[in-house]
Design goal:
Mean pLDDT: 95
Number of strands: 13
Number of domains: 4
Strand content: 5-15%
Largest sheet: 4 strands, antiparallel
Shape: globular
Bound molecules: arginine
CATH architecture of the largest domain: Orthogonal Bundle
Strand order of the largest sheet: 1-2-4-3
CATH topology of the largest domain: Isoleucyl-tRNA Synthetase, Domain 1
Radius of gyration: 28 Å
CATH superfamily of the largest domain: Isoleucyl-tRNA Synthetase, Domain 1
CATH class of the largest domain: Mainly Alpha
Structural class: alpha/beta
Distance between the termini: 42 Å
Amino acid sequence: MVEIFHVPSWIGARLGGALARLGIEAAEESARVQPADPRFGDFQANGLLALAKRRGLVPRPLAEKLLRALMADEEWRGAGIEAFVSGPGFLPFRLPDGFLLRWLNTYRDESSLRLGAGQRFLGRKIVVDYSSPNTAKQMHVGHLRSMIIGESIQRLLRFCGAAVIRDNHIGDWGTIFGILILMIRQNSLDWERSPAEVLESLEALYREGVARTNEDEAFLEEARRELVRLQRGEPENVALWQRINGLSYRAFQEIYDEMDVHFDHVLGESFYRDQVDRVCRELESIGLAEISDGALVVRHRAHPRFGEQPFLVRKKDGASNYATTDLAALLYRVEHFHADEIIYVTDGRQQDHFQQLFLTAEAWFFQKNYPLPALKHVWFGTILGEDGKAIRTRSGEPLRLRELMEEAKARAYGIVAEKSPSLAEEEKRRIARAVGLGAIRYADLSQNRTHDYVFSWPKLLSFDGNTAPYLLYALARICSVFRKLPASARGEVEALVLPSLETPEERVLAKKLVLFPCALEQAIEDLRPHFLCTYLYELAGVFSAFYKANRVLGEAEETERRRLGLCARTALILEQGLHLLGLATLEQM
Ligand code: ARG
């Protein structure tokens, strides 16, 4: 028998085959199988009644015919899934113990899970463009979500078999540098301090510079000239620009290291500066872009707004912009990475930009006869303070990411020190780091990404509810069961073969574990990691009920082995799930 990983999609495929054999050509939804209310079955085909209605068929006989066709399918019979007709023509499915045990005994370590999940996107090349902060500034809380959501999405895609290319599209080539270079020339800057401190001064200089451009025409002109000198590649300006970027990259890297975020490429906007002319030329030559008021724009006339609000690809002064760079980057990712798909992770305010980018690419590539990759804008809402407004410091500044992370660790340390005062200092710090940083991460990922959410320390650090501390603790508690075993038996729990299921709680837990691929699929389908969070939270709850009702250690040998096996599978999926979200897990808390 083939090993089934994602149960409902496997059932759905057999069902689709059965429909076809009956000569009923049906849309995919008709054979779609989903988890069902457990009172009626484990899974259910939801489209059959609607299909019968569309065809003018009586549903119950149709369901009966389908069931017979399924039973004639040898592979179906081999899988040992039960199906029966009920009510007006429902076709629920139930997983008997034998099936559950086979699944649990097949997927019992990371590599087998990976093998099961890895069929989904096998060989698909997906560029994930995330984090992407701007240089000359420190990362602030507004940069948190792209980094966290992007990292989780790329882990999920990779786990599901995609060849992921992680690309950090850093903003390192803006008009900001004209003002900055001029301000550095006119003021003194101590470069010898830490990257964060120098960036702090640069931010202050920039703010001052912007204020001056508003009142001092000559200053503004001079700043423009500095920018042109940089763009022309004059060595002095280039050296200053590089110095600022080098510093920024180092500051970003400290955050990425701490948050366990890694990139394959860091191709900043400047990387594309020699490729933007080609973009403009091509768009113009195929008649997609037109001159309007001296600027080059693309008008999507069929769109209700973008005809009037064109996509600006070259400014009046001849300079390219964010849009031109994104077009060049898209072309590069197709020509050099051979991307099948590109995913951009930014906040919701950039929705118009990406819609226009995608429309432009579509028309442009059609003319070029180039394959258009699937283009997805994965956008997210705002992090709010307790007052319901975008989160800021008391003095109204954006909150620095570095400080937020330090505070998370410090608060978690306080909790750890209180709960487990006897732990060694180093151990306390290690736990506080995993809990604190994990808590920020999880609070973000557990929200539907397109919603705004309120950032609350007590909530995200709570040991109750859908939080990182709760899940990390649930996992650590299972590990503590293993630690009570004699050393020789500890290493073997992963390999334990489950012989049977006996109690209702064991069955409920087994069924929940088998739903892991469904949670993965839900999270990946629309690139929303919160589905995985919800599942892990529910799994921890089901485990907790099992653990309360079914003693694990000190039972008869077979019972103990069976329950230890269930503990091991739960630990595996909790751990794997948390890693896919980007969290570091702990064996002890
Ligand atoms: N640097 C941009 C910003 O801070 C985000 C870039 C996102 N990626 C892209 N290819 N446009 O808003």
